[in-house]
């Protein structure tokens, strides 16, 4: 019996050591393949990574779950930089930004991104958020409405929904799952599975050619990013519940852009309700478009940004 226990303990230790080694190897490979595209800032002791391009009115871009600035630098920022000073920032724990104490909170993320933008000279920018990033943008607007010229919200969760947290996020956000399961994901999830997940986010459209190679899903599979993203997703619904009653007080121009075929963040559950709640919101419905309108319908997204700039008196 003692021998069996010792054998099991030894095998467990060897398995943990191998998992750690493989996870570390994959993380290092991802970081070498996808180096920082921009500059580092220190905000309240947290390292933040930002990419600044172009000139013109300031425009801050906030990416969604499991994302990074590379979601925007694939093509959108080059177009926007022709007439805006575009500031794309990795959210805490994702891309090249470090995890932050309390970084699962929308308010904490908004405060850090707002301070990073201010360090870069953007005192009253247009703020665009996609998916979860739109929720951060809403938190920013509620926290410091005077610091936002206009909002542009793409496929943004804004109101509570009926379903609960998925099993994946229940496991990976739990302390035990974060410790035991997350390293296994980092070490052993096959590339083919990751590519299928990337494609599923774009449904019913497909990811543009070269998107996955530019985006670098391996960065999201790092242990620190999986854990940070899971905690953020686990906290999202409860935080949104506290924000909803305050939306009528948001008076800045807001452009809402949402695909009618978005099954990740439903149009009727979120954007249509936000349209009713915000006094200066305008909703653009994109027929047949899914959850990634900035890639599937970039011209309409850029047009919404231009409208926001005009409505804010920046053009």
Q: If you had to describe this structure to a student in words, what would you say it looks like?
A:
- The chain is an alpha/beta fold and 315 residues long.
- It has a domain at 38-160 and 236-311: Rossmann fold.
- Helices cover 49% and strands 14% of the residues.
- The protein has 14 helices and eight strands.
- The protein has an eight-stranded mixed sheet, with helices on both faces.
- Helix 4 packs across helix 5, helix 5 packs across helix 11 (223-243) and helix 6 (167-173) packs across helix 11.
- The longest helix is centred in the first third of the chain and has 32 residues, at 2-33.
- Mean pLDDT is 94; it is low at 6-11.
SSE topology:
Elements: H1 2-33, E1 39-43, E2 46-53, E3 58-62, H2 70-73, H3 76-80, E4 85-89, H4 106-119, E5 126-130, H5 132-143, E6 150-154, H6 167-173, H7 175-188, H8 191-202, H9 211-215, H10 217-220, H11 223-243, E7 254-259, H12 271-277, E8 281-286, H13 293-296, H14 298-311
Parallel strand pairs: 3-4, 3-5, 5-6, 6-7, 7-8
Antiparallel strand pairs: 1-2, 2-4
Helix pairs in contact: 1-7, 4-5, 5-11, 6-7, 6-11
